[in-house]
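Standup notes
- DV: blocked on the single-chain target, sequence here:
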Amino acid sequence: MNRTTLADPTLAAPGAARTARRALAIGAAVLALAVAGWLGWHWRRGFVPGHWEAVERGRAYLRFGRPDLALNAVSHVRDEAPGSGEAMTVAGLALIRLGQYHLARLALERAVQLQPNQFESAVTLAELQFALGHGKRGVEVLEGAARLRPREFPVWLNLGKVLQDLGDFPRAIQAYEKAVRLRPGDRAALVGLIGCLMASDQAEEAQTWVTRALQQFPDDPVMLGYGARAAFDANRFEAALSLADRALAHDPRNLDALLACARTHVARAHWDQALVVAERAVAAAPNDLGALQLLQKIETRLGLKERAAATQSRREASQERIARMNQLGAEIARHPEDPRIPWQMGQTAQESGSFLLASRCFQAALALDASFQPARQSLKALHAAHPELAQASGRPLSLPALADSSSSSSTTSP
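- DV (later): unblocked, structure below
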């Protein structure tokens, strides 16, 4: 009996038996967890349909400068399986590098539709939309990017600039204000914010920001020009002339300073001095309606009837071109794939002397249809007449950084 007891520890020590059973249970649980983890890993990698391997391969090819192979790596993706949105991003970036901007836009639209949380993809798509002349859609996409990362200063700054170009000053002001809150000393954000406030006739608010800006940039001609304009609006004529003189000492073609100076001379009935400055303003900005209107008013007051009539004709022609550009901009929204529309916008811009805008419009037309000869011929002639535009273009559509991010996804593969 004693021999049996000694041979069977569980009989001799009941506590030790419980310990052994507990150890076996813990070991079984650990083994079960390990098996479950192993099965889960293989389930995700092998059994659930997905495109992560293709995405990683495509990103690698982009990093190594082979957009053709990157595009081929994801060319089979046609469904909505995990990784399909990221695969479409790879395709869009590859197509940009290959110069296929129209197809790149479609791929990136599909990418953000499948996976809306891709911040860099949204920013790239927005800039591509802007370059192709689709401003409103670009704004929508960029606003989505801002919601994903509300503290990204460049997004708010670019959004403000685009909305300002589109003439949507209230929304532009909101975007600039968010940009300034993120970077209170940023010059570009302050310039945009003050410009929109002045364009919206918010003189008091603009004056507040001008005062702050001049404290940070006391010798900046743009800020000084804004200061001159704000001083004139507040009937502080001596300050307006002083600030205008300081601005023009740095930049003789500063339009805000020239207009503030000319209007101050008009307010004081110094018509001859006003005429000289107004002529400088029109020379600096031949299509600015405010400058043309002021010049015509001064010419009329001085009895220069023929010159006033000629200035009126120039102002009416400029108004017609602006209306034409607005009309074509609306047509782009209705027919985004028609290369004739950006080409016609380029022709209108060229007529008004806006050669950089004309160059971009012609390039946008060619991005939609590389075989569209009217745009190609117009661009060639424009660059022949203005070689600096060809040198500044560098890459078509002025997209130097769009395709340089090889992993432009805020979501990663599992």
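- Follow-up: Residues 75 and 91 are 8 Å apart (CA to CA).
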